[in-house]
Amino acid sequence: MVSLRLPSCLSAILSLSLLPLAAHGYFLVTYPTKGTQVSNGQTFPITWTKGLLDGIDIFDLELTRMSTDGLILAARDIPTSSEGINIVLNSVPPGDDYFFLFLNSTHGVMYANSQQFSINSSGNATVKPLPSKPTVTVSGGPNPTLPFATTFALLNNGVRPWHPSPATLLSAGLMSFALLAGAAAVL
């Protein structure tokens, strides 16, 4: 009878060799940065950078505060490949505790959030908008009955492609191998 058990040392090495495969995904918000001040009526950029093989093709953008309840739904289905959009605020309540949330609002999965920034009631523009990037206008305060201010068109008729990471494929392959080895051991 042939034994398919791996020595514990070999299985530890195999397990540790899979760690680099899981570290390929990241989603970093590069602007606004901590302490950024923006004003109502001002167009300002939101920028990000992310990993290529993380399976995130689109996301939703929401605006929130730490001191009050509620969300302001800014944009839905933003393509991650654009790496930036412009935002215009109209009558958004001023405060120094705002954050942008980058998430999949359907499933409640948050990918990233911006650093804390301030919104002033008025002021001069200190940052320049991104040329040739779409602009989203956000108006008013949190209101749970309002839809997203903007919904971007999906480029593939609403079908979200599945891009499994190498770690997912390797895990599925190892699981299949383990199941086959278990079946062979029983037979």
Break the fold down into its secondary structure elements and pairings.
Blueprint: H1 8-17, H2 19-22, E1 27-31, E2 37-39, E3 43-50, E4 58-65, E5 71-79, E6 84-90, E7 95-104, E8 109-113, E9 117-120, E10 135-139, E11 150-151, H3 166-186
Parallel strand pairs: 2-9, 5-11, 6-10
Antiparallel strand pairs: 1-3, 3-6, 4-5, 4-7, 7-8, 7-9
Domain Yeast cell wall synthesis Kre9/Knh1-like N-terminal: 32-119
Keywords: Signal
InterPro entries: Kre9/Knh1-like_N (IPR018466)
List keywords for this structure.
four-stranded mixed sheet; Immunoglobulin-like; 187 residues; alpha/beta; elongated; 3 helices; seven-stranded mixed sheet
CATH level-two architecture of the domain at 24-153:
Sandwich
Percent helix range = 10-25%
CATH class of the domain at 24-153: Mainly Beta
Beta content:
35-45%
Shape: elongated
Low-pLDDT residue intervals, each spanning 5 or more residues: none
**Could you tell me the mean pLDDT?**
82
What separation lies between the terminal Cα atoms? Answer: 11 Å
Order of helices and strands: HHEEEEEEEEEEEH
| Helical/strand content category | alpha/beta
Number of helices: 3
| Alpha carbon gyration radius | 22 Å
Biggest sheet details = 7 strands, mixed
CATH topological fold name of the domain at 24-153:
Immunoglobulin-like
Number of strands: 11
